[in-house]
Design a protein that fits this description.
alpha+beta, Methyltransferase, Cobalt-precorrin-4 Transmethylase, Domain 2, Heat Shock Protein 90, 6-stranded mixed β-sheet, 24 strands, about 20% strand, globular
Length: about 550
């Protein structure tokens, strides 16, 4: 079986925190099974962990090149694990993978949070006399749960985070194998190669996206959040709304403009919303001091601060609350509202002070795992310190937080740099937000050309009115200088469109919009062009037809 996570990322500590990975130079079942038990109990709701056998460690870091394990030992180890798994009460079976690293074979034991916790295991699985204990993780160690820790662990029985629960309404066809394939390819997982030989249910099982016995298997909520084109069908309100107040909420609260909601798979929604902020909202001034060769660059909002704020709001929101994440853009601030509030173990005073926080319980831990592997979040409690530091470096006032004691909502306000504060904002025909009377100047340092696209300003204007992404997706694709590569970005996009149509002859316009992250108009224009080039045709009607790619 192929490991869903990239082995190099795992060994490098790039996407999984150090306290969730344990390295063992050799096969030693006694400490390994104590750690398996601890990870399965998932005391802090961090999604279990990984044990890598065949890798030594120094100060918690993998030693390279790896030691590896003897391939002749693999079969005896697998047979021994069958017996040791039966010693865990209730029964638990971790997933085992073998990967090639530095020319050697290593064994990766993936221990996901158990559905029937709490678990206990003998202190020494190899001993004749078995003394059972409950184990939990404490920092980077596996310890016996005692006193208050044991009481709390026992109280966690059958308490599963929302994103890791099975969904009774979902069907296998609600999960897109194309989205899964693209995710695995982006994270460089070897499963991307192997999944062509597997059924959709086998792929989801290997990625721990299913729950329950074979006869009553349910698709987990996180699979719908990440790999369904329409997660809002299962979690109403799963969207990001941008609301533009030209004179602010206080100045004229009835004067506002809403963009089309950003919807779709969580990671794609976040990327499109972040692109909107980056290309439509963020502006900069460059100052060149007389006696200094270095220029001073000041932004109305440092992008990294907005990125951390929005990702935190969308990742940590409650998906069982039918309220969207709302981004309000005003002359003096950007306000981001999420519902469900901060996790109850977090002290709001620490957040307001910009301190690094550690949640005693994590909300949506599985979702966080996927976002970390895509480098959309770090998941180490560094979000608010990053926002605080980015605002400081930009010379902006610090952020403020508003929340209630019942943890029903959470608001973060990012102030505009004083240099950019104005009385009234406006939105130009392409959707850029800027002070009244000012004209948007493209930033060539972002590799965006002033010559918009193949059909010029018409497409930019269309995007400005058709969708909240407005000119964003075109900036990210067609607006990039196309003569710097052999094949233009638009041509590459059309090639990708044909590839997707080969994989799924019934793929819809909406599917293509979500995957390619372009406007519906762009998809329609590309399809017409491909048809005119005799590279594509359609058989049947709009509803029951299929695409035919002409080789």
């Amino acid at each position: 079986m192929a490991l869903p996570i990239n082995i190099e990322d795992l060994l490098g500590g790039l996407v999984v925190e150090g306290n969730r990975v344990e390295y063992k130079k050799g096969w030693n079942p006694d400490p390994i099974y104590r750690t398996i038990c601890a990870f399965a109990n998932d005391f802090d709701d961090t999604c279990g962990g990984y044990i890598v056998v065949g890798v030594d460690e120094v100060d918690g870091r993998a030693v390279r090149p790896v030691a590896g394990i003897d391939i002749n030992d693999i079969e005896p180890i697998e047979k021994a694990m069958v017996g040791y798994n039966n010693l865990i009460a209730p029964y638990y079976q971790p997933r085992v993978f073998f990967e090639q690293v530095d020319g050697k074979t290593v064994m990766v034991i993936w221990v996901t949070a158990g559905e029937r916790r709490p678990y206990k295991v003998p202190d020494m699985v190899t001993a004749k006399e078995k003394k059972y204990n409950y184990y939990i993780r404490y920092n980077s160690s596996s310890i016996v749960a005692k006193d208050d820790y044991l009481t709390e662990l026992l109280n966690l029985a059958n308490r599963v985070p929302f994103d890791d629960r099975g969904n009774v309404k979902a069907k296998p066809e609600d999960v897109s194998m194309m989205l899964i394939r693209d995710y695995l390819a982006e994270t460089k997982s070897s499963l991307a190669r192997d999944m062509e030989k597997m059924t959709p249910m086998q792929v989801m099982e290997q990625m721990n996206l299913l729950e329950g016995p074979v006869e009553q298997t349910r698709i987990k909520n996180v699979a719908l959040m990440m790999f369904s084109y329409h997660p809002e069908r299962f979690f109403p309100g799963t969207q990001i709304d941008f609301v533009f107040y030209p004179q602010g909420k206080d100045g004229d609260p009835n004067n506002f403009t809403e963009t089309e909601p950003f919807r779709g798979p969580v990671h794609l929604t976040l990327r499109r919303a972040l692109d909107y902020l980056k290309y439509m909202v963020v502006r900069k001034n460059i100052h060149k001091p007389k006696d200094d060769a270095h220029s001073i660059v000041v932004f109305n909002y440092p992008y990294q601060a907005l990125e951390e704020s929005l990702v935190n709001a969308y990742y940590h929101r409650r998906y069982d609350e039918y309220q969207p994440v709302e981004v309000n853009i005003m002359p003096d601030m950007i306000e981001i509202i999420s519902y469900g509030g901060a996790e109850r173990s977090i002290r709001l005073d620490d957040l307001r002070a910009g301190k690094r926080v550690h949640a005693r319980r994590y909300r949506n831990p599985r979702l966080g795992e996927f976002l970390k592997e895509l480098h959309l979040t770090e998941g180490r409690g560094t979000g608010f310190p990053t926002i605080h530091e980015e605002l400081r470096l930009n010379g902006s006032p610090d952020f403020t937080i508003e929340a209630d004691d019942d943890h029903t909502y959470f608001i973060i306000r990012i102030p505009c740099h004083p240099e950019f504060v104005c009385d009234e904002l406006s939105m130009d025909k392409e959707g850029h937000i800027l002070p009244v009377g000012e004209v948007w100047e493209p930033d060539v340092t972002e590799d965006v050309t002033e010559n918009v696209t193949e059909d010029g300003t018409e497409d930019g204007t269309e995007n400005g009115t058709e969708n909240g992404t407005e000119n964003v997706t075109e900036n990210v694709t067609e607006n990039v200088t196309e003569n710097v590569t052999e094949k233009s970005t638009a041509e590459k996009r059309r090639d990708e469109m044909l590839r997707l149509m080969k994989l799924d002859k019934k793929i819809t316009y909406d599917n293509l919009v979500n995957i390619l992250q372009v406007s519906r108009r762009t998809v329609a224009r590309d399809i017409e062009l491909l048809r005119s080039q005799n590279r594509l045709t359609r058989e049947g009607g709009d509803y029951d037809g299929k695409w035919i790619v002409i080789e």
